[in-house]
Amino acid sequence: MNESSWGAPPGAGQWGPPDHAPASSLRGVAPPVPAGPVYDWGDAAQTRPMPVVPGPGGHQDDNREHRDIRENRDHLDDRGAARLSGPLFRDEKPQEPMPTSRSGSDSAPDPEKPKKKSAGRNLRAAIGVGVGLGVIIVASLFVYKPVFIGVIAIAVVVGLWELTSRLAERKDIKVPLVPLAVGGTAMVVAGYVRGAEGAWVAMALTALAVLVWRMTEVPENYLRDVTAGVFAAFYVPFLATFVALMLAAEADGPQRVLTFLLLTVVSDTGAYAVGWRFGKTKLAPRISPGKTREGLVGAVLFAMVAGALCMEFLIAHGAWWQGLLLGLAVAASATLGDLGESMIKRDLGIKDMGTLLPGHGGIMDRLDSLLPTAPVVWLLFVVFVGSG
């Protein structure tokens, strides 16, 4: 091999034997260290060799010499390939292949598909339970009034049980359930039989019973427990007594209760439907993140339309404009009642008060809007058309 094959000037480092020594005398011997600049074998392994051009009259020796150098180069290529097959640096990760589309061509990954809005609960179960409760309420309401009073009393007792159970579990507040259940049932019956005066008297006696009942236990946390007991007596049975007061009207008692129930349900439905579809602005994010101002507008519109229809066609001596005001008041009180219940559940660290009603939660989760709305509707009925 001559020097010109690598593009080196005459006299540079020689890879072959010197001109004065025969090539045959160096067969099988490793090439000597070059006298000129030293080349790194790793760099040589990474450099493509130039083709060998044999000189005149030296084809056989040059071919042998080239074969020896090529074997050494191949040996180095094996070592260099092993070194270059992985990452150039220890911290460098191998490059991952680009994702391909279904057609096999390289393309950017498909963007994530937008998630569908979820209703947040089992709508089939919620509708089924709602329809079942509606049938029971309407049948008892128009068939025999005392049966409906029994339905109210059962709802009150179950609601008290859920509330006191959650207070004990989450806050270790021991509210006596027995005097609350007995006193709550007495409140509902007294309101239906004796009117508002009977309801107030039953409420006072129930509070006194809670104070006395709690005295049978240790005095620690007595004030906390009886305060919670009086609150529970007012919040559940006393507010529910106003439904019995509406039912007691001789002329149109069942129609008044039906109007009260319809407006509350329509308000909740309008808020839920409009808020789920168009809701963007939070109404009270710290209390109930799911409620929106758009939902509140839907509740007001739905309730006002339903109120005008109910006052015009169900209530004796009622007027449509009275129904508009009634619907507006119902939407406001139902929303506040829902927020109040949400505040209680946030303080307790729970989502639902119970699991008795699939798709709804517990009884208290259905009474949250009804209870604060009952005294508002009763009062407006008295103002618009009298006590009946």
Characterize the structure shown:
- This protein is mainly α and 388 residues long.
- It folds into three domains: 1-58, no CATH class; 137-248, no CATH class; 255-343 and 358-388, no CATH class.
- The protein has ten helices and two strands; from the N terminus they run αααααααββααα.
- β1 and β2 form a beta hairpin.
- The longest helix is centred in the middle third of the chain and has 38 residues, at 177-214.
- It starts with 40 loop residues before the first helix and ends with a helix.
SSE arrangement:
Elements: H1 41-45, H2 59-84, H3 123-143, H4 145-171, H5 177-214, H6 222-247, H7 253-278, E1 282-284, E2 288-292, H8 293-313, H9 320-348, H10 363-385
Antiparallel strand pairs: 1-2
Helix pairs in contact: 3-4, 4-5, 4-6, 5-6, 6-10, 7-8, 7-9, 7-10, 8-9, 9-10
The count of β-strands is: 2
Oligomer type? single chain
Gap between N and C termini: 124 Å
Beta-strand share of residues: under 5%
Give the neighbour order of strands across the main sheet: 1-2
Query: Count the helices. How many?
Result: 10
Quick check: average pLDDT?
Answer: 79
Structural class: mainly alpha
> Can you give the helix content as a percent range?
55-70%
Low-confidence stretches: 1-30, 36-48, 55-61, 76-94, 100-109
Rough shape? globular
> What is the H/E string?
HHHHHHHEEHHH
| Rg computed from alpha carbons, rounded to a whole number of angstroms | 45 Å
Write down the domain tally. Answer: 3
Report the biggest beta sheet as strand number plus sense, adding barrel if it closes. Answer: 2 strands, antiparallel
